[in-house]
Amino acid sequence: MTEPAVSSTPGPQPALTPRQQLKADRREALLAAAKHLIAKHGYLGVRLEDIGGAAGVSGPAVYRHFASKDAVLAALLVGISHTLRDGGQRVRQSAPSPSQALLALVAWQLDFALTEPELILIYDRDRFHLPPEDLQDVRRTQRAYVEIWVEVISAAAPSGRVEVDRTRAHAVIGLINSTPRIPGTSDPGQTREVLTRMALGALGLEARGHEARGHETRGLETRGLETRGLETRGLDPGGPRAGRPRR
Q: Architecture of domain 16-67 in CATH?
């Protein structure tokens, strides 16, 4: 199984030696170059040597970090899948109410879509080039991430049927992940505002005066959500809280 590209474990990490830091920096430079090149040219249009050249790493040195191009693709897609799932778990656990958890999940997904559009393109087009065990890991991890959304939606804006709430979760995530394909995309702040309104609207909620950045919701008025200090309609403030993570 390929090691994820980014560690999503919270808390302080042991300090690296200068040699370890140099190796980690080169690995990140290779992944950044791979992300750009594969998004632009497709997985089949990029060689491992191209990735090394773009990162300023000589040919043989690339193999000290990745045994093959497959391993690079797996590090990108397995890594971001684990990061999204683990971040979603932390968002859900730390939110004071289901409604705040839902708003924070929307912000979390927007953070990803607005900062990592290349990974969205790579996943959609090139994920089937992953080795089978890594593709299975990505799918399993993404299912766990979707279930976090399902549980939060079922608590904050329930339809009454879990299979319907699962469909709604997939629809909202897909809506937010459409960002890379929007022609002439506006500035990130405006895009964030528009997609947040649309995501909440897809769940039968209404928002106005919205600003949500860094998993916070400031100046947001919603109808249909109970949120601290915000306009409230249609949800019992004493309703159920989101459950604990499955994994």
A: Orthogonal Bundle (1.10)
